[in-house]
Amino acid sequence: MGNNCRFLKRTWAEINLDRAAHNLEIIKGFMDKNCTRPACIIKANAYGHGDVQLMRCFRDAGVNFFMVSNINEALRLRSGGCDGDILILGWTPADYAPILAENDIIQAVLSAEYARELGANVKCRPVRVHIKLDTGMGRIGLLTADSERCADEIKEIFSVGGISAEGVFTHFAVADSRSEDDISYTDMQKRKFFDVVEKSQARGLNFKEIHCLNSAGTLMHYDKRSTLARLGILLYGLKPDNSMELPHGIEPVMELKSVVSYVKPLHKGESVSYGRTFTADREMIAATVPIGYADGYSRLLSNKGEVLICGKRAKIIGRICMDQMMVDVSDIPNVYEGTPVTVFGFDGDEKITPDDLAALYGTIGYEIVCGINQRVPRVYIRGGKVEEVHEF
Q: Pick the catalytic residue: 123, 274, 304, 336?
């Protein structure tokens, strides 16, 4: 996009809204649209991509249900123009019940006791809730080992004053795994979930929404009884698990860019960066790039990672610093101050994804994109043009 763009200060993230919308359409092809609607996960600042901007992108694509992790994220979406449903997947202190109700935010209920606490704090309007069941994630929710007892607790929640119980949901722990044992585990979670749902319905309880599908579940364990598919990491073009192959056409939405700030000869025997972990074994050319772990580019990629410059790979040499790192450009001609650098993303025929980086030091692509620091401007692109620049 050229070196004269006003956002190009040192390092920035490009967010391709067209790719996000295209990823959504591909994933929708895996579900029965008459039974299951997409709900987009916008938590953690839309996995580092920008919550309000991605909410608007998916809203424009027809989505009217969004999910976040906490009340602050929910209120950001409301203030950003979201008029669809918003479900908080985690815990909110019960004394925030009036704010939940006033802003028409749906709260996950984790127990009958918590439901009573919410109801007791309601001032006028009831709080809308979805009841969370723990079928094997082991994190939060009503226990389901005894399905009859669980259904009784759900009936108790329905009777609590001050709340409006609308839905029930659970979360799969290993839906992204193809191992026989993990597939059996997910099947067990699904059986537990729908057993409790059926027993609750037999008690006269009606659910507006029943949902168990996450990104991987939608692809690998689809069940049209789930009225919502909670789409998360796949929307952003990354793998739920490093072992998975992405559906054809899904591409990463975020690209991390920087520029060369300095170029110098590196003579044989000279070392680079803190700790002298790299020493040149030949005459080299080194380039400094103004990005570091304070921007969210992990120090664990020191002497491991690569970047793309002029369509070629350049290996990181020495330890990554807080604000800078060095790369070997000995075999890349015409590298100067201001030359663009793709830290991850596309350059010519080459591509580096957050999943590629995650594999280098034993994490997941989620952590890569969620970790891009707020000091890194987000540049939103649609139709090949810059639509918005957001600086925190």
A: 274
Tokens 């972990």 belong to 277
- Based on the residue annotation, tell me whether 222 is a catalytic residue of this protein: no
In the annotation, is 43 catalytic? yes
Nearest to 44 by CA among 223, 309, 232: 232
Q: State yes or no: pLDDT of 217 exceeds 60.
A: yes
| Span between the terminal Cα atoms of the chain, in Å | 21
Rounded Cα distance between 326 and 270, Å, is 13
Q: State pLDDT tens for residues 375-392.
A: 999 999 999 999 999 887
**Within 13 Å and on the Cβ side, how many CA atoms surround 299?**
10
| pLDDT tens readout for residues 92-135 | 999 999 999 999 999 999 999 999 999 999 988 999 999 999 99
Residues with Cβ < 8 Å from 149, sequence gap 6 or more? none
Q: One of 43, 132, 190, 192 is an active-site residue; which one?
A: 43
In DSSP terms, 289 is beta-bridged to 325
Place of tokens 């020495």: 318
Q: How far apart are CA 16 and CA 38, in angstroms?
A: 20
